[in-house]
Amino acid sequence: MTYADGFILAVPKAKLDAYKAMARTAGALWKEYGAIDYVECIGDDVRYGELTSFPRAVQAREDEVVIFSWITYESRAKRDEINARIMADPRMQGEEWKDIFDGKRMVWGGFEAFLEL
């Protein structure tokens, strides 16, 4: 079974083009280092729930969009290897990437697949 990292974050609408450019660069790097898939999605039908919701989870404001993304790997060991290489890659250290979104409000985690159809 595969392993996946999942992410939810809020991006200011005014910085969405910069985020998309960053995601294209990051996605290419993850794929270069061996990720199976790299997917970024912009919230289209994500209502602010009364108790729980994607926007509530990242404290999204009205001037922000919710991004839902995931990266798929062969295994957790492969994910750990790829992520170590990504974090050491100078292409991921760009100053132009700062201030595109508030990383403190990002929700993320690693998940072991138990069903793949």
Automatic annotation (TrEMBL):
InterPro entries assigned: Dimeric_a/b-barrel, DUF1428
Domain of life of the source: Bacteria
Protein's UniProt name: DUF1428 domain-containing protein
